[in-house]
Amino acid sequence: MTGEITLRGRVLPIGGLKEKSLSAHRAGLSKIILPKDNEKDIDDIPESVRNDLQFVPVTHVDEVLRHALNGGAE
Fold it and tell me: CB neighbours (10 Å) of residue 58?
């Protein structure tokens, strides 16, 4: 994940989701944690890449940590 988090833990939108996703795909990653506000940008990513990636939209840093550190388990 790249981007900014506010002091209260809110995840802010990012730019370049398509390029970052393509790079992650080339590097062999399978999960993309992205700001919920960027969900609309997923459509810009080629379908062949989208199908290989799991996109996890988040709004708060707690969600980021849960998905990044323990695979999304509660």
Answer: 19
For the beta carbon of residue 44, count every other beta carbon within 10 angstroms: 11
| Residues facing residue 26 across a β-bridge | none
Domain ranges of the chain: 17-70
Cβ–Cβ under 8 Å, residues 9 and 65: no
Q: What is the pTM of this model?
A: 0.87
Position 1 scores a pLDDT of 61
Amino acid code (one letter) for 48? S
Estimate the share of the chain in helix, then strand, then coil, as percent rounded to the nearest 5.
45, 20, 35
Query: Could you tell me if 25 and 61 are in contact, meaning their C-beta atoms sit under 8 angstroms apart?
Result: no
